[in-house]
Amino acid sequence: VPTVVVAGSASGAFAARLAAELQAPMVRAEAKRFPDGECSVRLHEGVRGSHVLLVQSTAPDANLVEHLLWQDAAREAGARTITSVVPYYGYARQDRVFEPGEALSSRAIGRALGFGCDGLVTVDLHKESVLQFLGGKGRAVSAVPQIAQALSGWGTDIVLAPDQGARSRAEQAAKLVGCRVDHLEKTRLSPTEVTIRAKALDVRGARVAIVDDLIASGGTMMSAAKELKRQGAKAVYAVCTHGLFTGGAAPKLLAGGIDRLLSTDTVAAPAGVDVVSAAPAVAGVLAELRPA
Ligand code: R5P
Description:
Blueprint: E1 3-7, H1 12-22, E2 29-33, E3 39-43, E4 51-55, H2 61-76, E5 81-86, H3 105-115, E6 119-123, E7 138-141, H4 144-154, E8 158-161, H5 167-177, E9 180-190, E10 193-198, E11 207-215, H6 219-230, E12 235-243, H7 249-255, E13 260-264, E14 273-276, H8 279-289
Parallel strand pairs: 1-4, 4-5, 5-6, 6-7, 8-9, 8-11, 11-12, 12-13, 13-14
Antiparallel strand pairs: 2-3, 9-10
Bound molecules: ribose-5-phosphate.
Residues 93, 126, 162, 212-220 line the site of ribose-5-phosphate (R5P).
C-alpha cells in the first residue's frame, strides 16, 4: 500500500522534508481562503487505497480548521488510512478545568482532531496528557536529540529548564550533550521584585542553554537571560522546539542578551534563528507505526 504526503498550507516545508525522509510522494493539494476567512481544500490527485499523511500544524485556529478539512477530503477520496501529522499542536497547555464554567480546551480540540484520523503524530507536547483526548490514536515524538546535537556543536556547559515542571526535557538534552543540568527558580524578594536563578548550579563563566517546549513572546527567556548574564554566564542560548516568536520576539531576544536562538522547523522560523529539523524524528515514529 503506497504512503503519500499531503502538505497543508501551514506546514509545506515540514511536509516536504518528511516526504524526503520517508521517500514518499507528495500529492498535489490546494487550500484556499474565501474573502470571509473560511477555508476550502482540494486534493488534485487520487489517494484511493493509500496511507495518507496529512501534515498541518493546528495553530492558530484557522490552521486547525484547515486540518479538519484535509481529514475529510482524504476520507472522501478513499484513503485507506489517514494519519494526521501535527508539527505544532495548538491547545496543548490546558489539561484540566481551572475555573468553574471553563471549557477544557485540549479535550475539545483533541476530540475534533481524533475523530477524523486513524492516528496522529505530533512533536514535543507541552502536556503529554492531552493525548488522552485523542482516543488512543495520538503519539508525541521528541525533537530533543536533534536539539542536543546542535547544542553540542555550539559548546554548552549547562542546560537549564525554565522551571521544575520542564526539567525532564532539559535532563534528556543535557544527557545527550554530556553537560550539567538544573532548573530555574523564581524567588519573590518583595511585591515588585523577583529574582531568577539556577536552583543549585553556579552559572559564572558558563555557556548556558535554556531549553523550553516553546517560545511565544519570548518574555520567559528574556527575563531569565538578563538574570543569568548578571550572574556571570558567559553565553545564554534560548532553545525551544516550537518557535512561535510572536510580535518580533526573535530580534528582541537577540538584542536583549540572548547570544543564540535555536528552534526546530515545526513552525517556520524568522531570520536570526538557527533551525534543526524535527522531520527525522517524526519519520522515525511513522516508519514504526506504518500499517501493513
Ligand atoms: C509555558 O507554559 C511554556 O512552556 C513556555 O514557557 C511559555 O509559553 C513561553 O511563553 P513566552 O515566550 O511568551 O514567555
